[in-house]
Design a protein that fits this description.
heterodimer, A: mainly alpha, MetI-like fold, 69% helix, elongated, B: alpha/beta, Rossmann fold, 2 domains, six-stranded mixed sheet, 19 helices, 19 strands
Chain lengths: 265, 519
């Protein structure tokens, strides 16, 4: 009997890592590649299809889509990295303190986490962004705070499992203080469990920021940003479909590759 | 080569070799050239250490090849069928009516949301299902109207094992396969389950294969014994003969490693009159109201080894945890030899007091931080130098190469030795051992106990050893304490407790232990 080999894109290691490599290369080196400027407007060539001069054509202001596309991941990635770092820091500290302290402290922190989880993230982000403006720093902190609660929850249960293990008991018997047990025994092991959760959070934050830009409250024009690019070109989709399809492909491939990599670990 | 079974045979293995999938051909197989025949109505016990391949063999007899393994060569035959090439329909026909398997983990083998009766509905069909179920439950000692409607969480461990047994036997198989039938049960409950199995085997006449790490269990219900080591059957013969005059080196080591009531692992050493621990009227309440320990008096002298025996739930582990300060006392007093109050919370104790009492735990996989090397684990809280660590490792029989190893690169026995070395680095006066060898193979257990005996002698430490294995405690301790439901039932020297126990419960425990021992 002939065996059928199904090619599973999400399980192909080489493919996942080459997509991730491509995104890393583009995000890091886009400004140093000899691309046409992202802002220069060519009023003689609006909404053109792909050509030798403009590989993916031009948008409604005559800007080069290819160049904007390659630059378009940078703002979201910077904010996603910053926000993930913030949410990790807050989440792991709160989660492990809750588990370590127990009693009413645990109870109180857990209710705070539940409360944060119950908030509608995107609406709250819209509110923050319209009050405080589209400052990347404020957005990173807001995203970091908002996405800290799932991390705190996982960190809390991971710490609880760890605390019941015998090597923690031995550390207490041998005179380890709570702080040294937290940093020496608990956190290094919590981190191992957390990696998956953190990587997934990163992709959610990436998508959240792009959604915010799409709604006009994330990155501000004329910054090239995928979410913003989709929003700006929506009305011209029929004239040059690539205007919308290309940024969607970039965003989707990045998010999928990260999630597939996490599954692979 | 195709072998067919004769009329009188029920199971045949011919030259069976099983390997890990995609592994090189010169690596050691999981099972190597296994040849075995079982007559109808015959009982066979298979013993061996962990990784010996005994469970793989048993699963193969049930027609299941453990995922990740491949059958390299050979055949497994049950009543004329090569089970491994049987179609799913044929296999489900064979399974239950010809062969039945009772798997090891009794906790996971029953579906939590189904009653006992519903479990049978998948297996039994036709008329008068309920009557047949009641009948087969009564046969395994679960008679009466109440059991069919209970859920698994309403059953004790012994009752679950009996339900599994009834499930396996309800379609009257000709061959029953048991994987570690008593390893999750207390000695007394395990012994009752074995008696039931033995009675059923005699009355129904099915053939039986029982796998266990415990020679005592296997010898109780099987006429023949196969000893496995590293994927091979190294010895096969009549139970009494294998036990009395083992011929293979491994079997000899296995038989001599089993602790016996009347055989010392450790020679009693001189004890001083100095006490290291005094408890008076000790009480521990766990949870809301459960009395784990009830008004217990205990005194331990320097250099004395005290053994604690009792069933699970008797409060053994709670007592140890309270003595070292991991759980608080509810009443009574606990002092060390100098009169320091040991009810003080751990983080308030001076470091000298802290290090004077150390504990080694049951599960070696849990005792070392997986993120650290042995050197880091051993030095972090003891602040020992590298030379001191090397010395401690040497004293437990581990070389310097272990300094840089991580727990995942070590065997269970090695991890437990490293955990003992860590306790020793604190230089304790009193060492608490909570079932330290129960996760280890018998031969490894014997080596670890010998090491501990040497260390006790050279350092003149006091030790409290807790184990479910009465013979082990009796062969290691100077004095035995019997606990039941948190109360001290009896205490005395080893010979007094083992030879002439005063309390009826102690007598019962000693009888069970003698039953399990091999003579």
């Amino acid at each position: 009997m002939k065996t059928l080999v199904r090619f599973n894109f999400l399980k192909n290691r080489a493919l996942i890592f080459s997509v991730l490599g491509f995104h890393a290369f583009v995000a890091l080196l886009a400004p140093y590649l000899r691309l046409s400027s992202t802002d220069s407007q060519d009023s003689a060539a609006l909404l053109q299809g792909p050509s030798l001069n403009h590989w993916l054509g031009t948008d409604s202001l005559g800007r080069d889509v290819f160049s904007r596309l390659l630059h378009g991941g940078r703002p979201s990635l910077v904010i996603a990295f910053a926000a993930t770092a913030i949410s990790c820091l807050i989440g792991i500290v709160i989660g492990s303190i809750a588990a370590l302290a127990g009693g009413w402290i645990d109870e109180a922190l857990s209710r705070v986490i539940d409360f944060m989880l119950a908030l509608p993230t995107l609406i709250l982000l819209l509110l923050i962004s319209s009050f405080f403006g589209q400052d990347p720093l404020i957005l990173s902190v807001a995203l970091g705070l908002m996405y800290a609660s799932p991390i705190a929850r996982v960190a809390r249960s991971a710490t609880q499992t760890l605390l019941a293990r015998d090597f923690i008991r031995v550390a207490r018997l041998q005179g380890g203080s709570r702080i040294s047990i937290l940093f020496g025994e608990v956190l290094p092991n919590v981190w191992r469990v957390m990696f998956t959760e953190v990587a997934m959070q990163f992709t959610w934050i990436l998508l959240a920021f792009s959604s915010l830009s799409f709604l006009g409250l994330g990155a501000s024009p004329p910054t090239p940003e995928w979410g913003l690019m989709i929003a700006e070109s929506r009305s011209y989709m029929t004239l040059n479909p690539l205007l919308v399809i290309a940024p969607i492909m970039m965003l989707a491939s990045l998010v999928l590759a990260i999630q597939a990599m996490v599954d692979h670990e | 080569m195709i072998t067919t079974l004769t009329q009188s045979q029920i199971l045949g293995f011919s030259n069976v070799t099983v390997r890990i999938k995609n592994e090189a051909r010169d690596s050691r197989p999981i099972l190597e050239a296994i040849g075995l025949q079982l007559e109808r109505g015959e009982t066979l016990g298979i013993v061996g250490g962990s990784g010996s391949g005994k469970s793989t063999l048993l699963r193969l007899a049930a027609g299941v090849l453990t995922p990740g393994l491949v059958l390299d060569q050979g055949e497994v035959t049950t009543v004329g069928k090569n089970l491994l090439v049987a179609t799913p329909a044929e296999r489900s026909n064979i399974y239950g009516s010809v062969v039945a398997l009772v798997a090891q983990s009794i906790g996971e083998s029953l579906t939590p949301h189904l009653t006992v009766l519903s479990h049978f509905r998948d297996t039994v069909s036709g008329e008068a299902v309920d009557e047949r179920v009641l009948e087969s439950l009564a046969e395994v000692g679960l008679g009466g109207e109440k059991y069919p409607y209970r859920y698994p969480h309403q059953l004790s461990g012994g009752e679950r094992q009996r339900v599994l047994l009834a499930l396996a036997l309800v379609r009257s198989p000709q061959l029953l396969l048991l994987d570690e039938p008593t390893s999750a049960l207390d000695v007394s409950i395990g012994s009752e389950v074995l008696t039931t199995i033995d009675r059923l085997q005699r009355s129904r006449g099915f053939a039986l294969v029982c796998v266990s790490h415990d020679l005592g269990v296997v010898s109780q219900i099987s006429k023949r014994i196969a000893v496995m080591n590293q994927g091979r059957i190294v010895e096969l013969g009549q139970t009494s003969q294998v036990l009395r005059s083992p011929s293979h080196e491994y079997t000899k080591a296995l038989v001599s490693s089993i602790p016996k009531l009347d055989q010392r692992i450790r020679e009693s050493s001189s004890q001083s009159n100095e006490t290291v621990l005094v408890c008076r009227g000790l009480g521990i309440v766990r949870g809301q109201t459960t009395r784990a320990i009830d008004s217990l008096d205990l005194e331990i002298k320097q250099g004395e080894v005290v053994g604690i025996i009792g069933e699970s739930g008797s409060g053994k582990s709670s007592l140890l945890a309270a003595i070292c300060g991991l759980i608080p006392l509810t009443s009574g007093s606990l002092k060390n030899g100098d009169g320091y109050d040991l009810s003080t919370a751990l983080h308030l104790r001076p470091s000298k007091i802290l290090s004077s009492i150390q504990m080694v735990f049951q599960n070696p996989d849990d005792s070392l931080n997986p993120a650290r090397t042995v050197e880091q684990s051993l030095s972090r809280y003891t602040h020992a130098t590298k030379t001191q660590i090397c010395e401690a490792l040497n004293s437990v029989g581990l070389g310097e190469e272990f300094l840089s190893r991580r727990p995942r690169e070590m065997s269970g026995g090695e991890k437990q030795r490293a955990a003992i070395a860590r306790a020793l680095l604190a230089n304790p006066q009193l060492l608490l051992l909570d079932e330290v060898t129960s996760a280890l193979d018998v031969t490894v257990q014997a080596a670890v106990l010998t090491t501990l005996a040497d260390l006790q002698r050279t350092r003149n430490m006091s030790i409290i050893i807790v184990s479910h294995d009465i013979a082990l405690v009796a062969s290691f301790a100077d004095k035995i304490i019997v606990l039941r439901n948190g109360k001290l039932i009896e205490q005395g020297s080893v010979s007094a407790i083992t030879k002439s126990p005063a309390d009826s419960y102690t007598q019962h425990l000693m009888m069970l232990s003698a039953q399990r021992s091999l003579t």
